[in-house]
Amino acid sequence: MLTSFVHHRAARHEDLDQNGLDGSVASSFWFQGSDEWYDDAAGHGTHVAGTIAAVNNTIGVVGVAPEAELFAVKYFADDSGFAYSSSLVNSAYKCRDAGAKIITMSLGGPLPNPFEFLVFDKLLRENGILSFAAAGNGGGHRPSYPASYNGVISVAAVDRNKAHASFSQRHRRVDISAPGVDVLSLLPSGGCTECNVNGAASGYGTASGTSMATPHVAGVAALLWSFKPEATATEILRAIEDSAVDLGDVGRDDYYGHGLVNAKEALIHLNGGPLAEPAGGLGVASSVAIQRVPTTTSSSLENECDESEVPFGLTIKTDFYGEETSWELIDTLDPSNVVLSGADFEDSKTYEWHKCIPANCYTFVIKDSAEDGLCCDYGSGSYSVSFGGQEIAKSDGVFASRQAVSMGYCDTASANLPVVNVGGSSEPVQAVDATPTDPDATTDEDCVEIGLTFTTDTFPKENRFELVKLSAAGSSPEKIWDHSSFSESETYEYSTCQDPAGCYEFILWDSFGDGLCFRYGDGSFKLSYDGDIVEESDGSFGHKVQVELGSGC
């Protein structure tokens, strides 16, 4: 996987000569100054390169992705710490043209530039390039750029105790955290000062800063892409963020972002299940190939069950308070018989069960001790249940203290919920409708249906929408919908039946002004009137989108 870093320079080094930084023409490009790309007097670029990809050659240190190929772009002039936006943009284009899928930038400044914003957004959207940048070392709450652009992943720093580094800037654009205090990596030979590997001037040393944290995450991205080359940039980013170790406040916060990057868990997330672990354990810097293995499914388990048994499957994703959740599978004809159960879960984790059980009638019950389900303001929990190899119920976790689902070979007279048939069987199985319903919806035949499908991004608290019926001049509009307090990266469906002669206005707000665009999730919305799509958007709007609809407008 070709990883490009935009920096001062990177010295030739014994721990980099197998990663493309060997002096070949294809391995580098420079915009500024007269020195060669490998004349790194400051050591900053060399240190970054080592964190990403120092080779596993029994000497020195090992990078996060030791087999990654590097492409260096010399952005700063000689020993200068100053450069122009145009040079940064050109540097990014050079990385793209070289075939890089990852750009890492241990640099930044306090002022945004519209041209930079557009370029990095385009690199992500159109070229599938993940760009990482340092969150900044000012210690305050101001954002730093390019890290805070929509198309760039902002990386904060933590110390060896997983505590937020005091110098690391903290703000709502921070995406992820990584080690950034006293990080041991490469330095130009003769430039090592302390904490080196083989003595003074050995070419190894420590450094601190969000500049040191950023290449850790870029290295994990390279590791993931080498493991699954066909993955999209969004899949790689989601694997990194969703698997991060949650630190600080529950969920994403301004200090740690989504949490501390975790390479192994990110691999498992990207794989969709456990990994085949090589002998000696799974090390992120191991030269042993990691194999993807399929996860166990109900259908594969079906072949293993006895004739008198059927496969039962359950997947639960907990919210921010996993200890509140528990579940039971009860023999409906003998409620004292709890066949299976689960409790004591961790926060924001996914659990799976696949069991062969007797072909009886069952009631699945999921409980939440805080009476707020698995969703909404406390995380994006969910669950799905399968019986006989078929999915019976799927829920986004919207319930209070408990939710029950009946399934299996039951007496139809006992059913008190809508039923579905499994595998052509005449035996009914009760189903849970996971689609949120709108209290304003009606079924009046003399009305016209207005529908909305709304998918949030990763900052759902920024969003609110209304549907109002516009009245005659001087009269107040009649409010039909007014919704907020959504969960992260969830899809909601709404429907209401209204007067066909009316004029209606739909307004969707984003308080931050970046719409629902996919840099912060795959947000979108689709608005329909009488079955026809009136407005459909991938979320690329600013503070507000406003639509009038109806024959009376």
UniProtKB/TrEMBL annotation:
<dbReference type="GO" id="GO:0006508">
    <property type="term" value="P:proteolysis"/>
</dbReference>
<dbReference type="Pfam" id="PF00082">
    <property type="entry name" value="Peptidase_S8"/>
</dbReference>
<dbReference type="InterPro" id="IPR036852">
    <property type="entry name" value="Peptidase_S8/S53_dom_sf"/>
</dbReference>
<dbReference type="InterPro" id="IPR015500">
    <property type="entry name" value="Peptidase_S8_subtilisin-rel"/>
</dbReference>
<dbReference type="InterPro" id="IPR022398">
    <property type="entry name" value="Peptidase_S8_His-AS"/>
</dbReference>
<dbReference type="GO" id="GO:0004252">
    <property type="term" value="F:serine-type endopeptidase activity"/>
</dbReference>
<dbReference type="InterPro" id="IPR023828">
    <property type="entry name" value="Peptidase_S8_Ser-AS"/>
</dbReference>
<protein>
    <recommendedName>
        <fullName>subtilisin</fullName>
        <ecNumber>3.4.21.62</ecNumber>
    </recommendedName>
</protein>
<comment type="similarity">
    <text>Belongs to the peptidase S8 family.</text>
</comment>
<dbReference type="InterPro" id="IPR034202">
    <property type="entry name" value="Subtilisin_Carlsberg-like"/>
</dbReference>
<dbReference type="GO" id="GO:0005615">
    <property type="term" value="C:extracellular space"/>
</dbReference>
<keyword id="KW-0479">Metal-binding</keyword>
<dbReference type="GO" id="GO:0046872">
    <property type="term" value="F:metal ion binding"/>
</dbReference>
<dbReference type="InterPro" id="IPR000209">
    <property type="entry name" value="Peptidase_S8/S53_dom"/>
</dbReference>
<keyword id="KW-0378">Hydrolase</keyword>
<keyword id="KW-0645">Protease</keyword>
<keyword id="KW-0720">Serine protease</keyword>
<dbReference type="InterPro" id="IPR050131">
    <property type="entry name" value="Peptidase_S8_subtilisin-like"/>
</dbReference>
<feature type="domain" description="Peptidase S8/S53">
    <location>
        <begin position="12"/>
        <end position="259"/>
    </location>
</feature>
